[in-house]
What we know:
It holds the Pfam family DUF594. Keywords: Membrane, Transmembrane, Transmembrane helix. The chain contains 32 helices and two strands. The protein has helices spanning 8-36, 46-70, 83-89, 91-99, 110-114, 116-137, 142-145, 147-168, 178-184, 188-193, 202-215, 241-260, 263-266, 269-296, 301-323, 328-336, 343-353, 369-376, 383-388, 392-400, 408-425, 435-440, 444-451, 455-480, 483-505, 515-531, 540-549, 557-561, 572-584, 589-607, 610-616, 623-632, and strands at 363-366, 402-405. The radius of gyration is 30 Å and the shape is elongated. By secondary structure, the chain is an all-alpha fold. The protein has a two-stranded antiparallel ribbon with strand order 1-2.
Amino acid sequence: MHISFIPGQLQDLWDLWGLEILMLLSFTIQVILTVYGSRRKDIPGMWIRLTVWFTYLLSSLFAKIIIGKLTEIPESDPDERNIRRELKALFAPLLLVQIGNPDAITAYSIEDNRLGLRQLFTLVLQVAVVIWIIVKSWTHSRLSYLYLPLLVSGLIKYGEVVWTLKSALTKTSGIITVQEIDDHEANMPSLFRFLPHDIPNIELILKAYYRFISLKPHRENWLYQPLYDSLPWMSIDDYEPEDIFQITDAELSFMYDVLYTKAPIIYTKAGFILRLVSFSHLVITLCGFSILFQQNFPRHLKACFIAAVLGGAVVLEAYQIAQLPFSDWAIVQMIKHQHLPFMIPCLRILGPRATNWKRWSNTLAQFNLMTFCIHHDKPLKCGRVLKFRGMDMMLKKSKNRRRVAFPKELKVLMVEEMRDIDRERGLKPFNHRGDWSLGRYDCLHDLKWSVQRDFDKSITIWHIATDICYYSDSETSGQHCNAASYTKIQMAKSLSDYMMYLLALRPHMLSMTTSNIIFRHACEKLKSLLLEQEESVKDEKETCRILRMERVPHYSKSERRSETVVTSKWHILRDAQRLARNLMVRENRWKVICSVWVEMLCYAAANCNVDYHSEQIRRGGGLITHVWILLAHKTDKYHISD
Length: 642
């Protein structure tokens, strides 16, 4: 392959070592994907997503380039043996092993699963080309016979990818079918009954597994009826909040693995056998090549390189096999086969460690509208270019986002409030976003208007009103509030900032098309109010004092003319001020605020498209997805709402 624009010496180097360089880069990519492929589910950052995305795309690109170079290998001459040609041909099955994708990632996004048929065609074509390269390079030498075990290993690795893509979103999933649930339903309670109760976490993981396979949350059209009445052991109502969230963590981890990894295939009996066969053939190839290497070409540089890459492939495969026991899937299989020797001792080792396994980021994203308007809405470098590309506002919002550790107190609050909501709604689909909470605290008559506006408008005015109440109470909270009240105030503030984060940076998860318009409108009105003050406003506390104490001016004629259809006849600051003043006169205001925020979050979670939840779990997870999975188990999809 001659490349005209490369200088002479580099061209010679490329012609001589280009294939080896590409194979080395391909191997490096596989190492990166093996180590970081699954870390994106517990690291919520741009750099990890970019790293995985970039290497995932490069993996496919390098495969095509390498196969293209391999097709240039001339056909073997039975009268003349060419060692260099035979060594090059060994790269073909080795490439299959490399690009069979590591266990940690088979799909970058949900769309990759949907395009599985197209990927299947590409995979089959690549396998056909590799087999053709092997056939035309065959010389009946001992080196040629090493193609076969390496080809078997590569075909198995490729087969795992095809199997995983096929099973991720189809009815014949690689985990368990409805028929299997029916067949084993009688045995499930016995598994729980005979569990060793002195081993922590294993009951929670087993319950999460069976809740997951019955719900199948990753399938949008999967009809589900709650099994609490017929199968009471599926219920988690009597569990502590910490345990409930641990079960939910494990459920979402199972969902991530089904959509984006080989886990549901590897942990089947067939998958385990195939993995042993693949690894053994890889080791056979390495051992055979090592013997030939010492006998025939101990100082051949290309042979040295192939030996190193083969050794690296064996080490990488051994690393992946060594990681298999440290998974929720492995614990489930050990429980199912606990009658076998060594299973209980293994569970005693792995069970206590399972608490520390990272299944999601365990953080809560936060975004505050007032903080953004006061401190962070400043011009960016290259602002004109970014504005032209429509990226300026998104980057500003991203800079203002922060993350805090997900507090245990919030887990307790969420579970308590959701139990109250469940008593109101039964198994009906979620179609309220504050009414139940306001009715429970006798506020519905006075505050119903605030939750009956468009959802994004309701979130915005409740967010501003929560800030007004928060900073008003912050001066006296340390002196007059008990610990429980102070905790409730902090949790309400966290939920408020989380919902504003969804509106500002994840509007698609709120199922609203006008969220960006509402956000810009709110920013404009807040900044306009602050600019009208005689002295510059430096912090959120002063802003809230102005909103609480002073009269918000009417819009001018020019402001009215600039309004959009979405924001016309809506005075956001007056609404927020009215809501805050109504809440401030109530002693139980923080109970009301917390309840309304939880109900709004439940509404958003229940009405968010399944695909967005599937995407969220590969971005580090989020509270809204945990709420969704909890609600889904108690929502009857057959139910026809009144």
